[in-house]
């Protein structure tokens, strides 16, 4: 019942993907001893509010807008659970200090692709996530998602820094992005090629 209610609120607030995990092993990285379950929320970057006719140079600009929505949805779920006497903590999309990937993978909303990003059946890598952890034991199973990466290596070939040759070279990616920011004078200027070119989840 609680799970259905959470799903209903999340979808009403705009979430397109809702997943759950009760994996203690996964939750332990958050260092919240009271955490028993996590709700994972996803939203594609094709949000109707972005359909203003404005052409964005890359998905980095709409990403920041989507993160604000994702934070608000997570806070709504947090408030809902607290009002029912549960402990809850929203982990917002815009908080870069918390890595949500383990929760997303455990919830079965997506899998890791060769581009080192989480790709989903619905939107490929063009999706943002937030999450809520709670001490409620939520009776919901993770989604069973197949391996979606086609191994086409289009992302690796598109990568201008060579960061996707085999394992992910995070330093090469970071250095390239620092150069982009410096040359453009814009902190928002980020490389998104490995997100843009992936064919999974394209409509
Ligand atoms: S963000 Fe750009 S530089 Fe970094 S891995 Fe993706 S394509 Fe390569
Ligand atoms: S572009 Fe191809 S290889 Fe790269 S993540 Fe997408 S499906 Fe996998």
Description:
The chain has two domains: 2-134, NADH Oxidase (3-Layer(aba) Sandwich); 154-196, no CATH class. With 203 residues, it is an alpha+beta fold. The protein starts with a helix and ends in a 7-residue tail after the last helix. The strands form two sheets. A four-stranded antiparallel β-sheet has the order 1-2-6-3. Strands 4-5 form a two-stranded antiparallel sheet. Helices cover 35% and strands 14% of the residues. One iron/sulfur cluster (SF4) binds next to helix 5.
C-alpha end-to-end distance: 33 Å
User: Structural class from helices and strands?
Assistant: alpha+beta
Going across the major beta sheet, what is the strand order? Answer: 1-2-6-3
**Overall radius of gyration:** 17 Å
Total beta-strand segments: 6
Question: Layout of SSEs?
Answer:
Elements: H1 2-13, E1 17-21, H2 24-27, E2 37-44, H3 60-83, E3 88-91, H4 101-107, E4 111-112, E5 118-119, E6 127-134, H5 154-158, H6 170-184, H7 193-196
Antiparallel strand pairs: 1-2, 2-6, 3-6, 4-5
The protein binds iron/sulfur cluster (2 copies).
Q: Key terms for this structure?
A:
203 residues; alpha+beta; four-stranded antiparallel sheet; two-stranded antiparallel ribbon; 7 helices; globular; binds iron/sulfur cluster
């Amino acid at each position: 019942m609680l799970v259905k209610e959470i799903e209903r609120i999340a979808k009403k607030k705009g979430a397109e993907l809702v997943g759950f995990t009760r994996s203690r092993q996964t939750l332990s990285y958050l260092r919240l001893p009271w955490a028993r379950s996590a709700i994972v929320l996803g939203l594609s970057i094709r949000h109707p509010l972005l359909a203003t006719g404005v052409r964005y140079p890359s998905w980095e600009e709409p990403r920041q807008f989507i993160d604000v929505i994702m934070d608000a949805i997570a806070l709504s779920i947090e408030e809902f659970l607290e009002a029912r006497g549960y402990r809850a903590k929203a982990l917002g999309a815009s908080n870069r200090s918390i890595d949500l990937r383990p929760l997303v993978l455990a919830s079965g909303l997506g899998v890791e692709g060769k581009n080192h990003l989480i790709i989903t059946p619905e939107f490929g890598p063009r999706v943002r996530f937030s999450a809520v952890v709670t001490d409620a034991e939520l009776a919901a199973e993770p989604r069973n998602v197949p391996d979606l990466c086609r191994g086409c290596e289009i992302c690796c070939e598109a990568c201008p820094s060579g960061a996707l040759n085999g394992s992910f070279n995070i330093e090469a990616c970071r250095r390239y992005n620092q150069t982009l920011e410096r040359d453009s004078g814009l902190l928002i200027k980020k490389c998104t090629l490995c997100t843009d070119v992936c064919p999974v989840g394209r409509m």
